Amino acid sequence: MPCQAALSYHEKMKQTPPISTRTKIIVVALTGASGMPYASHLLKYFAGRDDIQVHCIISNAAHRVLELESSIHLEKMEKDIYQVYTEKDIAAPPASGSWRHDGMVVCPCSMSSLAGIAHGLGSNLIHRAADVCLKERRKLILVTRETPLNLIHIENMATVTRAGGVIMPACPGFYHGQTGMEGITAFMSARICDHLDIDHQLVIPWQGPGGLPHGT
Known about the structure:
By secondary structure, this protein is α/β, with parallel strands linked by helices. Helix content is about 40%, strand content about 15%. Helix 2 crosses helix 8 and helix 5 crosses helix 7.
């Protein structure tokens, strides 16, 4: 007769729908770089959608930067997001390649985190989860935030790119006509969604001078 642990495992398997039929599962990691308004906008947008389940990893440094740069409070964030992990939680689902998801975004991505990911350090959950994305050939987007860049930064970006990741510097465009803070952060959220194959109406896609909005 199967043991209780085996029964529990099989019951969990029955409750887990195939990845093709469930909502998109997205991992969002926050590191200690400046640029928390980008992360705040992205997380608020995802939290408002029923078809996206967010698993958020917050580094120790990100806690402090959140307080300094964003109106988001960690307690409220944890209520709005499906699951929140600390960087030390190396047993969390994103640390394993057998836990399937639809992509990971590191936003903002510090140069320290970039270096850890580029060199496969795996010293915390963010580094490990990113490493899993690369080895499993899943989408990994690093929203890097630093200026100017030195050669070490550039070479680390090249290393991640060669490994299959996407380097998406926090460089918003202004051609959509929304130049306020909300428009700037919406632009970056839109570009992230584009690369995660998530439909959105955050900004109107460029249609050329005098072009009509997409879908009209």
